[in-house]
C-alpha cells in the first residue's frame, strides 16, 4: 500500500487527493438518467419493460411478470440452510431492537396562558427500497432498509431490485420473506428509482426512497428528490482506521481489505502514529491479497484508492480523519474510548480490536447504510426517522392571542403582509 507521512513536503497535495476520492462524474450520466426518468414518467410500464430488456437482458411479456411473488419468497426461505436461516433471524432481531430505540416521540407542552404547542410524529404511508441485485445481491441491505421502515410503522413497503437474465438471488428472496415484503418488483437501475418516484401501472408511487446503488441509481435519486424524499446520495464503500503501536497488523490489513473487495472504487485509508505498524500492515495487505476470492478487485482498490498515513500524534491523526469523514471508522488503539470525544465525523465508529467493520455490516444492529465520501460531516446513517415526518401542533387560547397577537401583527406589517396582520387583529377586537 502507498505510505505517506504528514511530514512530507507534498503531503497537502497527497491528502487533497484522498479527500477527492468520492468525486464521480454525475454530470456525465445526468442526461442519460434524465431520459430514463422522462420515459418512465411518460410511458410507465412500457418503458420499464423496454429498459429491462435492454439492461437486464430478459423480456417481461406482461405487467404481472414484473412482480416477485410471495410464494417465491416463501420457497426460497424454506430452502435455505438452517444455519443461514438462524443467522438471518438473529440479524433481524438485533437490527430491530437497535432501531426501536431510535423511535421519536410525539409531545405536547402546555403554557400558563393556555397555549398548547407540540409535535406529532407519523410514518410515511409508503416507502420504496432499492436493493442491488444480480451478482452483487446483498440480503443484509434488504434487512437494513426494511427494518427501520417496519419499526417506523410504514404501512406499505415497496422493493425494487434488478434481476439480470431474470434470475433472482435466493437469499434476497428469503430476506424479503422474513421482512414480510408484499410488493417487490424485478426492476433495477434509474428505471426503478423513477418508477417508485412517479408510479406506474404496476409500481405504486412512494413517499421516500432509500437504498444503495451505482452512479445511475445515485443520480436518479438526486434528480427525483423533491418529488419524493431520499435517504442520501451514497458512493463507493470506504473504511478509515486509526491505529497506534499496539494494533495488530494482521487485523489492520484484513480490515482494510474488507472494504477494498467491495469494488474497485472503494477506499481504504489508515492513519497511524507508528511507522513500523504502517510498514507491517502494508506487507500483510500484500500477503492477504494472494488469498482473496475477489483479489483483483481488492488489489485495484488498494493500488488506486488505498493509503496509509503516518501522523506525528494521535491528535493530528484524529484531525485528519475528521477531514476524511469516512463511512466506516475503526479505532484500533490502546484505549479507543479515549478518542471518541475527538471523533466528530464518521458514519459508524467501531471501537477496539474485536469490532471489525463486518460486524456492523451484518449482526451488531446499527444500520449499515451510511454516508460516504465525507458526507458524514452532514448526513447520518439510515434510521427510523428517514421513514417518518413531524407535524407542529399549535393551539392558542383567548388569553394567549391577547398577549402575543399584536406582536405578531407588527411583524406581519413589517413584511408588508396586511392580510396576515388583519387575520390576527380581527381576533383582538373583542366587539367582533
Automatic annotation (TrEMBL):
Zn(2+) binds at residues 259, 262, 361, 420. Pathway: Amino-acid biosynthesis; L-histidine biosynthesis; L-histidine from 5-phospho-alpha-D-ribose 1-diphosphate: step 9/9. The keyword Amino-acid biosynthesis applies. It comes from the Bacteria. Residues 41-90 form a coiled coil. It catalyses: L-histidinol + 2 NAD(+) + H2O = L-histidine + 2 NADH + 3 H(+). Its cofactor is Zn(2+). HAMAP family: HisD (MF_01024). Catalyzes the sequential NAD-dependent oxidations of L-histidinol to L-histidinaldehyde and then to L-histidine. This is Histidinol dehydrogenase. It comes from Malaciobacter canalis.
Amino acid at each position: 500500500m502507498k505510505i505517506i507521512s504528514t511530514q512530507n513536503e507534498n503531503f497537502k497535495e497527497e491528502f487533497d487527493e484522498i479527500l477527492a476520492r468520492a468525486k464521480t462524474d454525475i454530470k456525465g450520466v445526468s442526461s442519460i438518467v434524465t431520459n430514463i426518468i422522462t420515459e418512465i414518467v411518460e410511458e410507465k410500464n412500457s418503458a420499464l419493460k423496454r429498459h429491462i430488456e435492454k439492461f437486464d437482458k430478459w423480456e417481461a411479456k406482461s405487467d404481472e411478470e414484473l412482480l416477485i411473488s410471495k410464494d417465491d419468497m416463501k420457497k426460497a426461505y424454506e430452502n435455505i440452510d438452517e444455519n443461514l436461516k438462524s443467522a438471518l433471524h438473529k440479524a433481524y432481531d438485533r437490527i430491530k431492537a437497535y432501531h426501536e430505540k431510535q423511535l421519536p416521540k410525539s409531545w405536547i407542552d402546555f403554557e400558563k396562558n393556555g397555549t398548547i404547542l407540540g409535535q406529532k410524529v407519523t410514518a410515511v404511508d409508503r416507502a420504496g427500497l432499492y436493493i442491488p441485485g444480480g451478482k452483487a445481491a446483498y440480503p443484509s441491505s434488504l434487512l437494513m432498509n426494511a427494518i427501520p421502515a417496519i419499526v417506523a410503522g410504514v404501512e406499505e413497503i415497496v422493493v425494487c431490485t434488478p434481476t439480470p437474465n431474470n434470475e433472482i438471488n435466493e437469499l434476497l428472496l428469503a430476506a424479503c420473506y422474513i421482512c414480510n415484503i408484499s410488493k417487490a418488483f424485478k426492476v433495477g437501475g434509474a428505471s426503478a428509482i423513477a418508477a417508485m418516484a412517479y408510479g406506474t401501472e404496476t409500481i405504486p408511487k412512494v413517499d421516500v426512497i432509500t437504498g444503495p446503488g451505482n452512479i445511475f441509481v445515485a443520480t436518479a435519486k438526486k434528480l427525483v428528490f423533491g418529488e419524493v424524499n431520499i435517504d442520501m446520495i451514497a458512493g463507493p464503500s470506504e473504511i478509515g482506521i486509526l491505529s497506534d503501536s499496539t494494533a495488530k497488523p494482521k487485523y489492520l490489513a484484513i480490515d482494510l481489505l474488507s472494504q477494498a473487495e467491495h469494488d474497485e472504487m472503494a477506499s481504504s485509508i489508515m492513519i497511524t502514529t507508528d511507522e513500523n505498524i504502517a510498514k507491517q500492515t502494508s506487507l500483510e495487505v500484500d500477503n492477504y491479497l494472494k488469498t482473496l476470492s475477489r483479489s483483483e478487485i481488492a488489489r485495484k482498490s488498494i493500488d488506486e484508492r488505498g493509503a496509509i498515513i503516518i501522523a506525528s500524534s494521535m491528535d493530528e491523526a484524529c484531525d485528519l480523519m475528521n477531514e476524511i469523514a469516512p463511512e466506516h471508522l475503526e479505532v484500533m488503539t490502546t484505549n479507543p474510548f479515549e478518542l471518541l470525544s475527538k471523533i466528530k465525523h464518521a458514519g459508524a465508529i467501531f471501537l477496539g480490536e474485536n469490532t471489525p467493520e463486518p460486524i456492523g455490516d451484518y449482526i451488531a444492529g446499527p444500520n449499515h447504510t451510511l454516508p460516504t465520501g465525507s458526507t458524514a460531516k452532514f448526513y447520518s446513517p439510515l434510521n427510523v426517522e428517514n421513514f417518518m415526518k413531524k407535524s407542529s401542533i399549535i393551539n392558542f387560547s383567548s388569553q394567549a392571542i391577547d398577549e402575543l397577537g399584536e406582536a405578531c401583527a407588527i411583524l406581519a406589517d413589517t413584511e408588508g403582509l396586511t392580510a396576515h396582520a388583519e387575520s390576527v387583529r380581527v381576533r383582538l377586537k373583542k366587539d367582533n
